[in-house]
Amino acid sequence: MKILVATEKPFAKAAVDGITDIATKAGHEVARLEKYTSKEELYAAVADADALIVRSDKVTKEVIDAAKNLKIVVRAGAGYDNLDLAACSERGIVAMNTPGQNSNAVAELALGMMVYISRNCFTPGTGTELKGKTIGIHAYGHVGKLVANLAKGFGMNVMAFDPFVPAEKIAADGVKVASSIEELYSSCNFVSLHIPATPQTKGSIGYALLSKMPKGGCLVNTARKEVINEAEMVKVLSEREDLKYITDIAPENAAEMAEKFGKRFFATPKKQGAETAEANINAGLAAANQIVKFFATGDRTFQLNK
Question: Which of 124, 137, 239, 259 could covalently link to 144 via disulfide, CB atoms 3.0 to 4.6 Å apart?
């Protein structure tokens, strides 16, 4: 089988070497398309591929239509809103992600961002410490659980809300369970956001929730830009001069927000969540192993379009 690694933002060399080694040992061919600049390049490269590995590259219906032999596509990472799952299902193509492989990198970034904004974005002036503050984990999945563990190391109090995780499972980790999303936002100095971008969550974080945060509250977003209602974010930051927002996914109006809100707002110039050597390698190797297992045994453990 031919496995195409199509990455506009390439994997690290160690990841590429590992993917190639895993695939070739299993009897598969590996092709690479890196730093491509047009959709047409991707259409041409995927035309005869049996499997596809991507990072944040968009696998649209047009890509699926061009991939006549495609049987499986794996997004090397947790988020998968760049995959057109409906188009994959229509063609009988299995779509997967690699949950957990980037989690530690994202969790460490979330805490680093909290330190950064608490210390006036590393500019002169008196900042605050994380110790003794309460952090709310909005969605207690792979990343959320790691953020909770790291936050405890800083001496923080930890609360979490996730309607899809049993309360007793969260409590077993020594984390207080919020009875509602409103309680989470109204009780926490920091809220660390880890929800996916779905039709239900897009634009769901806005004025109603953010205005409930305590004085000096800060929202930390290492999830997705789409879950934020950006107009309402501007409204609440304008009305509440004590609130802060730090994000790894720059909003459309990032320049305007930076000018208007100064050190109460910061967006990384480019998404950094999974940008560590370790996460890069882990996700790439996981994607290769999942494809090999799929072709060998039909394993669909991480299938998204069930």
Answer: 137
